[in-house]
Amino acid sequence: MKKENSAIKYGLIGAIVLVAFGIIIQLIALSYLESAASNPGKFTLGKALLIGICSLVIVAGIFIYCIVKSIKEYRKKDPEYTYRKLVAQGLLVTLILVVVSSGLSYLYNNVITPETREKTLELTKQVYQNLSIPDDQKEKMLEGLENKNPVRELLTSLGLTLLLGMIISLVSAMVMNKRNTFNNPNQMR
Length: 189
Known about the structure:
The protein is mainly α.
């Protein structure tokens, strides 16, 4: 009987959940931008910041859940686990989760529904135009919107999510490494 790798299972589950969550957040943000563009008084930086912070917390929660579940299953299958093996399991989940979800998100945003991306860009420009900030700052913000590079955004997203997953993997493996390291000096290998 072939052993199933829990890292693949939880990496794929996490990737699908992240893509679905990303689409939902994109729709919420688009709706908010539409109402803010049509009624400039409705836009507050606090609401936009709240959406961003909630998104980050949920994404981190998805990473933590997938990595911890994978490590727990790995510990059950291999009672001779080491800290290094637990970290590797978490990193494998992270790699699968990040590559699959980033690839699917890129396809969704740039191939399947590029009009949504354009609409979001136009609405964001309208919201920025209505902000009561100095004109030079407005111009810098609008220029930043015009110079967005989807490939650079994808690479930045990959790098940051890999870093997040690495940190979560290291901490999770440390917490879940229940074997006694003081009596076994080879354990940390």
